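User: Please go through the entry that follows and flag anything odd:
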Amino acid sequence: MSALPRYRRWQLWALEKNQLNIEHIVAAIVDPAAFSKRDGGDGWTISEVLGHLYDVDSYFLARAQALAEGNDPPQGSGKSQDEMVIEAGYAQQDARDLLEKWKAARIPYHAFLASLSEDDEELWERPGRPTDGGGFTLNDQLILSAYHDLDHIHQIVKIIRY
C-alpha cells in the first residue's frame, strides 16, 4: 500500500497549522511600524504577503476544482507576483483585513482538498496542461501549498525582525 495518502494528510494538517501560525504571528504584532516595514529594500510588506497568499489560494482552489472535475485548470494571469501585488494595492490595505480575506479563501481551498479521496492516485496525479507547470499535478500543488506557506511565514518573521 502506498504511503502517499498518509503524506497527503500530513500536508493538509500543515496547511491548517501554517494558517494558525500566520494568524498568531500577525496577532502578536504590537508595533504598528512593523506593518510598514519591507522584506529588504524593495521587498514586500506584511500586507503584501497576506494579499499574495489570498491570490494564490484563490487560484489554487479554482485549479484544484478543475483538475478534480477532469478539466484543464484555469490560466494564470500571466503577470508576475510582484505585478499582481502592486496592481491590487495590497501595501495600502490593512494587514488584519487581508488576513481575514486570506482565511476566507483558505477555508474552502483546504476543505475542498480534504474532501478528495486520499487513495485516488489517478485524481492526485492528474496533470494540468503543459503550459501550467509541465504536468503539475494536484499532489504537487498540495505539497507546494504547504511549502509556500512556510516560505511566507519565514518572510513575515524576517519583516518583523528588520
Remarks:
- The chain has a mean pLDDT of 92.
